[in-house]
Design goal:
Elements lengths: L1 E5 L2 E3 L5 E8 L8 E6 L6 E6 L6 E3 L7 E6 L4 E6 L8 E7 L4 E2 L3 E5 L2
Parallel strand pairs: 2-11
Antiparallel strand pairs: 1-3, 3-8, 4-5, 4-9, 5-6, 7-8, 9-10, 9-11
Length: about 110
Amino acid sequence: GQLVESGGGSVQPGGSLRLSCQASGFAFSTYIIKWFRQTPGNERELVADIDWSSRSTNYADSVKGRFTISRDNAKQTVYLQMNDLKPEDTAMYYCSAPGRGLWGQGTQVTVSS
C-alpha cells in the first residue's frame, strides 16, 4: 500500500490550501486516516482524523473551526481543507493509515507574509 500527499505550498496568513492524500494498494475505504504535521525538532502532531464512513472526525484544538477533513472512498482520497491559515500552521503535513502502518512522504505548508 501507498499514500501520496499533495497540495502544499506557500500562502499568506488568512489564506487557504487543500491537501490531498491519495491511497493505493490497500482497502482504503475500511481504514481510519489521519493527518499529522511536524516542524523541525518537534514530534509529529495529530491534526485531524476521519473514520471509514466519514461519520466521525476529530481535530486538534489548534485547528478546530479552520480545518476540515473529508474523504472520497471512490477516489481513495482524503482531503484536508485548511482555511484562515496562520504562521504557526507552517509544517510538513503527513497523512497516515495507522491500521496499515502507512505514512506518506509529506507535503510542505508554509504560511508567511
